[in-house]
Amino acid sequence: MKRERILLIAGTILLLGTASFGLAQSDTILSDTLIVNEGLIAEMGSETRALSDYFSFPKLLLTLLIIGLTYLFLRVVSGLLNVWGERTTRHRVTIKGFIPVVRILIWLGSFSFIIVAIFRPPMASVLAISASIGVAVGFAAQDLLKNIFGGIIIIIDKPFQIGDKIQIGSHYGEVTGIGLRSTRLVTPSDSLVTVPNAEVMSQAVANANAGEENCQVVTEVYLPLNVDIAHIKQTALEAAQVSRYVFLNKPVVVLFSQEDVGQRVLLKVKVKAYVNDLRNEFLFQSEITEVLTKEFASFYSDNDLQ
Fold first, then answer.
1. Which of 78, 87, 71, 277 is closest to 177 using CA atoms?
2. Is the Cβ–Cβ distance between 236 and 269 less than 8 Å?
3. How far apart are CA 65 and CA 58, in angstroms?
């Protein structure tokens, strides 16, 4: 009987000890959890304060001001370069070719200044944010990125530049602008055509002058077969050589061939010459066509015109 009481008392003491140890452990775990939570809250608070320091209202306002001033400055610089290029025919293409390069350099300098001088984030944060933005933009704007990379390649590789006469697909005209997204042409009918740079890079581009102020112009005239070929050649050469639009430092060539036109065979006269200013291309063609048509008008008959 005494032995059973002793075992009962020992078991009770052991149970109370275990319970006390469990409560102590629970208090320890709870205190550790509270410490960890307080640390996380403090860390989140410090990060929030850091973000608020990076993107404070004065910094955002200054950033918008710099972007606006950069835009206005680029408009002024581009306008001055355009005016300067238009005043000198000899160097127009070269001067206008600097416009897209200047725009990219100024924008890069402006954004670099904003990041380094205004926000001044740690390099690790810059790399992490850049990677995240790159992945997001890469999925969301694939076509836009293709156009931007195409614009950069055009500016660096220079298959053409502002002021050149080029053929892109079915569009022919003078290049008036090379942007990061698209290339703009003015056609002979004075229409402005905007071609995405990705499309420009995916097909062949024919350049009529390749950066020079002069370009070759081919004028085609159809005459009856009964005309004097020697007389035609002499007349065409004289008309081209005395034209105020011709560039005499390069040769003038007259070629002949026969071609079926409707139900008749006519003599095709092709006059190949260079104009002193690529903008005079169609004026020169009109002048040569007018001279040859008037000179040999008597050889046309009603049957030839049908």
1. 78
2. yes
3. 10
Report the chain's terminal Cα–Cα distance, integer Å. 141
Rounded CA gap, 187 and 170, in Å? 11
Could you tell me where the beta strands, DSSP code E, fall in the chain? 165-168, 171-178, 182-186, 192-196, 205-207, 215-223, 253-261, 264-275
Q: Domain with 262 in it: what CATH number? A: 3.30.70.100
How far apart CA 264 and CA 262 sit, in angstroms, is 6
Which residues, listed in sequence order, are joined to residue 293 by a DSSP beta bridge?
none
Distance of alpha carbon 159 from alpha carbon 195, whole angstroms: 15
Can you give the pTM of this predicted structure?
A: 0.58
Widest pairwise Cα distance in the chain: 151
Pick from 281, 286, 77: which is nearest to 164 by CA? 281
Number of folded domains in the chain? 1
Q: Kindly state whether residue 174 falls inside one of the protein's structural domains.
A: no
Cα angle 231, 233, 235 (rounded to 5 degrees) comes to 65
Q: How many CB atoms lie within 10 A of CB 227?
A: 18
201, 190 in Cβ contact below 8 A? no
- Tell whether 285 is covered by a domain: yes
Q: Which residue has the tokens 């049957």?
A: 303
pLDDT digits (tens, 9 = 90+) for 109-121: 888 888 777 777 6
Residue 284 lies in a domain: yes
Quick one: tokens of 115?
Answer: 């990041």
Write b or e for each residue in 166-198: b if 16 or more Cβ atoms lie within 10 A of its Cβ, otherwise e: bebeeeebbbebbbbebbbbeeeeeeebebbbb
In a domain, 228, yes or no: yes
For 220, the domain range is 215-305
pLDDT in tens, 137-167: 565 557 777 888 888 888 888 889 888 999 9
CB burial string 123-151: b at 16+ within 10 A, e below = eeeeeeeeeeeeeeeeeeeeeeebbbebb
The residue to which tokens 């105020």 are assigned: 244
